[in-house]
Structure formats: structure tokens, C-alpha cells
Specification:
The protein has one domain. It is of the alpha+beta class. Helix content is about 20%, strand content about 40%. A four-stranded antiparallel β-sheet has the order 1-2-3-4, with helices on one face.
Length: about 70
């Protein structure tokens, strides 16, 4: 069995103060999530997130599947 590798691409929406998170696995499967609207401070802080930060974020309930 081959382990699937995931990549994460994150796009910021400054006016809505949300992020769109796209996860793609090595087999081509894709899933898209959107964060709930954030405060300006939280949004600015999240701009510095790494892929691992976003993986941890996806363990929360502060997003929904698009």
C-alpha cells in the first residue's frame, strides 16, 4: 500500500477575512475548505501560517467544506 501525500494551498480573501484551503493528495483527490470570517487580528496572524499550521487548523471546527 502506498501512503498518500497531501499538499495544501491557501488563498486569502482580504475583504471577507477568510481563507480558502485546498488539499490535494498524490492520487489526485482534491478537497476545498473555507474558514469562517475572522477578526482582522486573527486574519493577519493566519497569513503567516505554515502547511503544518493549516493541518492543525483543520482539526478545529472553524471552517466548512466548499
Amino acid at each position: 500500500m502506498t501512503d498518500l501525500i497531501e499538499t495544501i494551498e491557501v488563498t486569502a480573501n482580504q475583504s471577507a477575512k477568510t481563507f480558502t484551503i485546498r488539499k490535494t493528495w498524490s492520487d489526485g483527490h482534491k478537497v476545498k475548505y473555507r474558514t469562517i470570517a475572522m477578526s482582522q487580528t486573527e486574519f493577519d496572524s493566519c497569513k503567516m501560517n505554515t502547511d503544518n499550521d493549516w493541518k492543525q487548523f483543520l482539526k478545529s471546527n472553524d471552517y466548512y467544506r466548499v
